[in-house]
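INTERNAL TRANSFER SHEET
From: sequence group
To: structure group
Subject: CsbD-like domain-containing protein

Please process the attached sequence and return the structure record in the designated field. Keep the field labels unchanged so the import script can parse them.
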Amino acid sequence: MKDLGKKIKKDAGNLKDKIKGNVKEKVGKATGNQEMEFEGKLKNKVTKAKEDAADLKEDILEKVNDKMDKKDSKKK
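Return from structure group:
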C-alpha cells in the first residue's frame, strides 16, 4: 500500500506540472512572451519524460518479478 501512496503522489505532482506547463505556454502565447511560452513547453516535455521513465521502470520491475517468480516455481 505504501507504493500506491507514492504513485498517487507522483501522479498528482505530474498533473500539477502539466497544468502549470500548459498555463505558462498559453499565457506566453497569448501575450507574445516567447520566454514564458518556451518555459511552459519545456515543463510539459520534462513532465512527459518523467512519466515515461516511471512507466519504463514499472514495466522492467514487473518483468523482473515475473522472471523471478517463474524461476522460483521451477525450483519447487
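Handover comment: Helices lie at 2-31, 34-75. The mean pLDDT is 90.
Transfer complete.
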